Description:
The complex is a heterodimer.
Chain A: H1 3-20, H2 27-42, H3 49-79, H4 93-100, H5 106-111
Chain B: H1 5-8, H2 17-25, H3 29-51, H4 54-71, H5 82-100, H6 119-124, H7 128-139, H8 144-155, H9 160-167, H10 171-191, H11 193-196, H12 198-203
Helix pairs in contact in B: 2-3, 3-4, 3-5, 4-5, 5-9, 7-10, 8-10, 9-10
Amino acid sequence: MTGNSRDDIALETLFAAGRSERPLPSGEFLDRIAASADAGAARPAPATLPVLRLAWLGRVFAASGLSGAAALGVWIGFVMPEALDALTLGGDDTVALATFLPGTDLEAILNE
Amino acid sequence: MEDNATLVAPHADEVPDTALLVAFSNGDAQAGRQLVARLGPMLFGYAARVLGDHGEAEDVVQETMLRLWKMAPDWRQGEAKVSTWAYRVTMNLCSDRLRQRQARPQVALESVAEPAADLASVVDIMTARQRSETLDAALSVLPDRQRQAVVMRHLEGFSNPEIAEIMDIGVEAVESLTARGKRALKKALYGKREELGFEDDRKQP
């Protein structure tokens, strides 16, 4: 047997000893890492889907609110015009128009 | 040699590491604890061998696990094994520490004298503990990459393709690293022949 192959056998003997004498961590150390796992799992979840969904719904409502309200007003006026009489100022359209057009001499215009 | 597949791959009735990591990212602390139980001892054994210091090995493993917890929500299944990823992080952290150790004396391997005695006969009479300590001392003088490759191949029991994946190099490069590492180990051992008792051994009748 050559010296080199005997050296290889010696080296393999050392490796075998190294595998059997494997360095082991202390229980206290493993507990410490396990505690870090607990802390990591307990931290608040980042931007979860439900939150994103609510935000999306909020944006939808905000965008559609104005046009929705306008459409609702048109619909009420169309199907129940008599119900709006209570909201007018005694049914005087002229007064109402004059109120909505300040600075305009509506009477003078009508008299022309 | 012990096959590292038995250390890394879960048994048939065990939950895969990836599933545990996903469960952990969904808030399951118990899954995280299971990962610690699987990976902690392996990574510690590896880091302790490479660094030769248990305190530093603890620091490295702790940092590795913290990084694992941090990236758990972004883990992409099928990309890599959790253990492979963890070994890679540990390896890089060990490399960082070895680079910072400029003070550690290195044996000038090229200047080591030719063998003057038979290594095998000396190793034969050592106890298992002495053999392990001798190996650690010889490993400590190897260059970083050779040391990590030798530890993974001959102590952790990884296959060359597994080491190639961890080290992000080709299989041939792994074979070259481990071969050079073993030659350097032998030279280092012969360089320590006085400490190891080669001379005393030869004087014995």
